[in-house]
Amino acid sequence: MALFPWLNSGYQQLTHLVSEDRLPHALLLSSAGGLGIQSLAEALAATILCLAPTPTAQGAHACGTCKSCLLVTNGSHPDYRVVSHREGKKQIAVDDVRDAMHFLQQTAQQGHHKVLVITPAETLNKASANALLKSLEEPPAGTFLILLSDRPASLLATIRSRCFKHAIATPDHETSHQWLSGNIQDPETVNLLLSVCNDRPCEALRFYEQGSLDIRSKLIEDLNKLMGKHLGPSEIAGRWNKLPMDQVLFWLSLWLTDMSRFLGSKGLVTLRDPMMVKITKYTVRHAKAVSIFGLTDDILSYKSGLERQTNLNPQLVLEEILITWHDMIF
Predict the structure, then answer these.
(1) Which residues contact 329 (CB under 8 A, 6 or more apart)?
(2) How far apart are CA 154 and CA 132, in angstroms?
(3) Cβ of 301: how many Cβ atoms within 10 Å?
(4) Residues 118 and 100 sit within 8 Å (Cβ to Cβ)
(5) Eight-state DSSP code of residue 164
(6) Which of 66, 126, 137, 187 has the highest CB neighbour number within 10 Å of its CB?
(7) Any idea what the Cα angle at residue 324 is, between residues 321 and 327, rounded to 5°?
(8) How many Å apart are CA 78 and CA 72, to the nearest integer?
(9) Is it true that domain 210-329 has CATH number 1.20.272?
């Protein structure tokens, strides 16, 4: 099972624990997001469930050819389950966690182990998290629970304290650049994506495939029209409301954070998005510093609220942002 190169070290460490029968019952795998840790969880599950592990200097690895490995690859292994929030839902349902706990209590069908993956773990609500705690406190023999999270600090302290924690570090720029260049041919696009995604290669590729750069172009075009008084805040908000809200807030938070840093450094900081130089300099020249910092805080707050599944009214949020931006430059 091929892994992203920046996951190999973590895989070696964890499979070494498997080979020595020292892997804890509950594992919390975390990262800054956009690093593909789901594939690491699957590779680790395959190793745990493998019927004929291949010995290596670093520990046993899944053979990839036994019946168990083939079932994991095909997503049909009876002793392996992944629980996430249902489509269209923002949280993992308590009934799904209870069903998963019942799954762990059953006898393994293919070997001696069972593996349950919960992702993203931060979408467990209070009820589903409490349902999970019983299994963490009294784990059935031969079961392994793997929690995946990009925001581990948001998990209940009682859950974190019962898990073995393994954090995946963001790869260095060279590693990220080399991998992303194998998927995107244009060097300027690769550099821009890695810059705005903080060297998180899977996140950069996801942005590219979802058309995030096209969204960026539309936002910048409309901001130029706002500065030129060709479009008003409400009209632009209506246009932006037709775009994915998470993408809109991502770009706005990036630009305003850079703008605040640019202002604080008196223009010495290099902006991560070169297309925003004109708008940044215009805004900094006409707006008060306190207004820029305040708008930055507001946008970061909206972005955080969206990530926490807080219900936001997109049209009203966008109107507030654009009216504030308009008023601070005119």
Answers:
(1) 227, 282, 283, 286, 287
(2) 15
(3) 12
(4) yes
(5) E
(6) 66
(7) 150
(8) 9
(9) yes
DSSP state of 123: G
Eight-state DSSP code of residue 61:
B
Rounded to two decimals, what is the model's pTM?
A: 0.89
Backbone angles phi, psi at 177, to 5 degrees: -65, -45
Angle subtended at Cα 119 by Cα 118 and Cα 123, rounded to the nearest 5 degrees: 105
Average of pLDDT values for 94-120?
93
What is the tens place of the pLDDT at every residue in 136-161? 888 889 999 999 999 999 999 999 99
Q: Which two tokens stand for residue 151?
A: 């925001």
Given the structure tokens 């839902």, which residue do they identify?
89
At 155-181, the pLDDT tens digits run 999 999 999 999 999 999 999 999 999
Q: Which two tokens stand for residue 124?
A: 């467990």
CATH architecture of residue range(s) 5-169: 3-Layer(aba) Sandwich (3.40)
User: Which tokens is 231 given?
Assistant: 């479009």
